[in-house]
Amino acid sequence: MSEAPAVEALYTLPSEQFVAARSALVKEIRAKGDRAEATRVAKLRRPPVSAWALNQVARTDPRLINELLEAGGALRAAMSDAVAGDASSLRTAEAAERATVEAILSAAAAQLDGQGHSLTDLHRQRMTATLRAAVLDDGVATSLRSGTLDSDHDAPLFGFGAVPDVAPRIARATDGRRVRPDPATIARERARRAERGRLEAEAERLRRRAERLEEDAVDAERRAAELRARAAAAGAAAAAVIARLAETGP
Question: In a 3-state reduction of DSSP, which class is residue 113?
């Protein structure tokens, strides 16, 4: 029997309930004798709050996700045209993509508010990066559509990132000629972006490590509680045996 419905239901729960519910499901599946499936489910990661909010938006208003992916595709096409020299549709495509992202962020904020959370700047950054990653990565898009994101995703290095590079070339061509920006300026900007990317990647690595350690701590606490219960049961059994032994006399 497929456990897919029960697994998907995990992603509808408040983020802080995920680990306990996953552990209970693993125990249930293992009791049925399906150890392989139990092992797979045990490895599922708890979505961070930002990914959780996007999952809820995808489940409650999939239209927004479809609009995002369509707008993202149109923006990619407009970027390609701009690189080729025709930027006529770039501004419109950028505006449409930003509007869909903002609509999703607004819906996500409502989901967070319903769980007593606030939409922070960090949440906005993580969700925006994930949404833009979904436009370029089919795997991320599939997880987003199904409402089963288990992590945040980095913004793409290409595609959307091409906009800042295209615009200066067009803006400087005031007399019809293409004028390259000053090489030193380009080098400084590339170095700045590289350093920013490095720091963002390091922050994301540490954030994910913190999440994994937190999950490990929750699992350890659950395991400790189980062992204490077993120890108490063993102690009670030992006491009963000692009582019976005393009844038998010397």
Answer: helix
